[in-house]
Design goal:
5 strands; globular; 8% strand; two-stranded antiparallel sheet; 384 residues
């Protein structure tokens, strides 16, 4: 349904030119959403896909194994949308020894994303609702060092920004002026807290994401935080016990369509087409996560069977394999700390796993030779 403009323009003067900033109307949309049978069925299918993902996470022998790497994969993808060059291996190597193979600022941005997600989930588990306070606390961690450190971490912007283009006059979108940001974000907070809501949580998440991206309340980090907001809402509403749904890969694969639909909401009020795209993404990503988790379980079982054939070295190899499931890039000193085995035992056990083809030895680095759990990383990187 095309409702027309979903906000109003304000003339502003910035960067030595006059332009128009867009101030969105508060949610929910007016006239109300037209949730026909097709959209409602899609919403039900998306909820079922999330249910399967949530159920699988509870059946995993150690959900933290999957969560650890899956969160980091999302951090890499979300940061790549913003232009970083880090890969998942770069992040894991940085965590292992603080010495990545890409510019340090790139991997710090990705590492900050992981920390911001973990902080947000922890604060919600402590009882803090999704609020301006939570959003600002998360943003402060997201931009705490690296390139974003000088762009007001944890504070709403006090100057005008724009999206696309070389200046506001030719930008794709000019968000609300700074003096309207708090008002717009307050309205978004009220929408998120509105009880009871007749809208399914996935549809509220879809609406909230667009609204956040339209307001663009910070000088930097808006895209990453807007994607985290989806995860936070699903987690706090009890849809996902573990934060395992991430749409960055889907948005990257359909980037042109994603931006086109955001603009269609602002200029034409076509919320329904955006919601359809969003729900299709949830189904796609949730199903992919389930498939990845199932393949990882099968991989771990296969490798444990191989390791049991090592005779007297099997016990050490199983301990090291458990360590690698949590940290797919590791070194002998790190394995010693994690498992309690001696350095020589760790070295010889790594070589035994390499002989089985389970790990691959890489070049010498700061802390000596490091080893990569290759099949595990290949599964995580599939389609990425």
């Amino acid at each position: 349904m095309k409702r027309g403009l979903t906000g109003h323009y304000l003339p502003i003067s910035t960067v030595d030119e006059i332009c128009r900033a867009f101030v969105p109307n508060p949610l929910p949309p007016k006239p109300p959403l037209q949730l026909d049978d097709r959209l409602l069925t899609l919403a039900q299918d998306a909820a079922l896909a999330l249910g399967r993902l949530d159920a699988l996470s509870s059946l995993l022998p150690d959900p933290q194994v999957f969560l650890y790497s899956y969160v980091r994969k999302e951090a890499v993808l979300s940061s790549q949308i913003e232009g970083t060059q880090s890969s998942l291996s770069d992040l894991l190597l940085f965590e292992a020894e603080g010495n990545p193979g890409v510019p340090l600022d790139d991997v710090r941005e990705v590492s900050n994303y992981v920390a911001a997600l973990e902080l947000g989930i922890a604060r919600m588990q402590e009882g803090l609702p999704i609020s301006l306070r939570l959003i600002c606390e998360t943003h402060a961690v997201l931009l705490r060092d690296g390139r974003g450190a000088g762009k007001l971490p944890g504070e709403f912007r006090r100057s005008q920004n724009w999206i696309g283009g070389t200046r506001p006059g030719n930008a794709r979108h000019v968000p609300p002026p700074p003096d309207k940001v708090l008002e717009c974000m307050g309205a978004l907070e009220n929408f998120l807290h509105g009880k009871p809501s007749i809208l399914p949580v996935l549809i509220r998440a879809a609406l909230a994401h667009v609204q956040f991206e339209t307001i663009h309340p910070f000088l930097d980090g808006n895209g990453r935080l807007g994607r985290l907001l989806i995860v936070f809402l699903l987690h706090t509403e009890g849809v996902l016990r573990q934060p395992l749904l991430y749409l960055s890969l889907y948005f990257m694969q359909h980037r042109s369509r994603y931006y086109e639909l955001l603009q269609a909401v602002r200029l034409e009020g076509d919320w329904e087409e955006w919601i359809e795209f969003f729900l299709e993404g949830v189904i796609n990503v949730a199903s992919g996560a389930v498939d990845t988790a199932q393949h990882l379980l099968a991989l771990f079982q296969q490798h444990r069977q191989q390791v049991r054939g090592l005779g007297r070295r099997a016990a050490s190899a199983l301990r090291l394999l458990d360590h690698l499931q949590h940290h797919p890039i590791s070194t002998a000193p790190r394995a010693v700390t994690a498992t309690g085995m001696t350095f020589n035992t760790a070295q010889s056990t790594f070589r035994a796993l390499a002989d089985l083809g389970i790990v691959a030895a890489a070049d010498e680095r700061k802390y000596g030779k490091y080893y990569t759990y290759t099949d595990y990383l290949a599964l995580l990187n599939r389609n990425a």
